[in-house]
Amino acid sequence: MANIANTNELKANKTGVSAKLIVRIVSITVVLALWEGIARSGLLYKDVVPTISAILYGIWEVLADPTFFRQAGVTLGEITLSVILGAATGITVGIILGSRPFFAKIFEPLLHYLAPTPKIIFFPLLIMWFGIGEGSKIAMGTISSFFPIVLSVASGMRHINPVYVRVGRSFRATAWQQATKIYIPAMRDPVVNGLRLAFGVSTIGVLLAETKFAQSGLGFMVTRYYQQFNMPSMYGIVLIIFAFAIFVNWLFGKLIVEETQ
Amino acid sequence: MTAKSAIFQKEKWVIPLQLGVTFLFFAIIEIAIELKWLNEYVLSRPSKIFFAFHRIIVEESILSYTAVTFMEVLGASLGLIFIAIPFGILLAQKKVLWQAWGDWVSALAAAPIVLLYPLFLVVFGRSPMTIIVIAFLTGFSPVVIKTVEGITNVRQVLKDVGRSFNLSAYQQFKLITLPAALPAIFLGLRLGLIYAMITVVAVEYLIDLGGLGNIVGELAERYDLPATYAAMCFVVGVSILFFAFLERLEKWLT
After folding, report:
1. Nearest-CA residue of chain A relative to B216?
2. Could you tell me where the DSSP H helices lie in B80-224?
3. Are A91 and A191 in contact (CB under 8 A)?
4. Would you identify the CATH topology of the domain B57-253?
5. What is the CATH number of the domain that holds A154?
């Protein structure tokens, strides 16, 4: 019976997988056909919706541009540094808030409501403080990434099973042993989750800042293509950025799933 | 009581202490500027910022800018209510569609959609429509994901009760599935509106058009530092009120 049930389940799964695959293929085909149809119809201004082949050529053109990898390096460096700075401050403050209810009561509601405010409005000040170079973009990313990390870590600290802490104390674990054997392993998930969110918001913060005032970076390239009205390359670079952001988000997701398993 | 709700449980001493800490922070900055430890040309005195509030309200008409921002958020929210929620319901009802498109919808949430604003500028021109469409797109994924989650997680016992009453598919959806999924749908809508609000202000600032984001940019370009800081504080205050309102609304509705 069990074998029959398993076989039926397998069949159902196979049907599910094939139906999913068919829907995906049909969806992609329909979207691409519609896109190509609109591009060739002349309904919209020429080049606003370029043909698929033009976009593919645009992606190739962007990748073949000798400055692309340098600009991508600048943006990646800014994002990485801002996430590191946001994580360093966010984890420190998060641990304090998570372990000291008095501070949490005063500051956490403020952080909770400040977290979803539009950080880009601080950019004019960051330009005054750090100039139009990379400093202001890193600061923008750091402010953006601080909030998800601090809130995630503070909440994670409070959700550590108190039994683990009591067991550690009953074994007379030193502060270092408690940190490495109890707190850090228990905090991995909220920290990784905070970093995942921080990466997303920091990427947006840095790229938007680059589109406003910058002399380098991928955001600057987007604006440059826009000013040159080079739409295929603009589509190309935006698609490359999207693919990268989705890939990194997927990697963080994998890390969390592996930990849960 | 959960750990989080314990933190947000207001005790009598919390608000005065929060206000006291905020006041102390501003007092330290004022003194630091007075003692020339901080540069007044990059950091305005809190006292000047305080008096600039009157100026930005009366002379700069920041309230009318706020109205423009809220009209744009309203435009995006109509899109979320009438497009994203029905789309989520469709995906929840047709499992194969969710299996096929679910990953794409989630991936969309991770993509920096707001970066498409130059593209929409070309398509819609420098108009509020550009801002509304981008705001709608950034709020789209959370609304769809939470709608699907809400509908697919309706408890089996509730569905069985509906079946035992021989309800038609429409009655089952209207009387059981939708009411049971409402908390998740409202949560999604709240998240979507938060994203939409952030995006509206951000794009306004980036393209120098429309409401609150635009006025912050304008004041910064004039190098009117106290007014710039005051406008920023105003935007933060409006955002906080908006989020607090959404939280209350969600609690009240569910």
Report:
1. A121
2. 85-93, 95-110, 117-124, 128-152, 156-164, 169-171, 178-207, 212-221
3. yes
4. MetI-like fold (1.10.3720)
5. 1.10.3720.10
Q: Which two tokens stand for residue A192?
A: 């990784």
Which residues from chain A sit within 8 angstroms of residue B119, using beta carbons? 226, 231, 234-235, 238
* Residue numbers in B near A246 (CB within 8 A): 107, 110-111
Distance of residue A134 Cα from the nearest chain B Cα, in angstroms: 18
Is A102 an interface residue toward B (CB < 8 Å)? no
A137 and A44, same structural domain? no
The token pair at B8 is 């947000």
Q: Do B18 and A109 touch (CB under 8 A)?
A: yes
Full domain range(s) for residue A28:
2-49
Is B42 an 8 Å CB contact of chain A? yes
Whole-angstrom distance, CA of residue B52 vs CA of residue B44: 11
What distance in Å separates the CA atoms of residue A11 and residue A218, rounded to the nearest whole number?
47
Are A73 and A32 contained in the same domain?
Answer: no
* Residue-wise pLDDT tens digits, A125-150: 899 889 888 899 999 999 999 999 99
Q: For B147-191, what is each residue's pLDDT tens digit?
A: 999 998 888 888 888 888 888 888 888 888 888 998 899 989 988
Measured between CB atoms, which of A108, A242, A246 is closest to B7?
A108
Residue A155 lies in a domain: yes
Our count of domains for chain A comes to 2
Tell me the ipTM for this assembly. Answer: 0.83
Query: How far is it, in rounded angstroms, from Cα A38 to Cα A51?
Result: 9
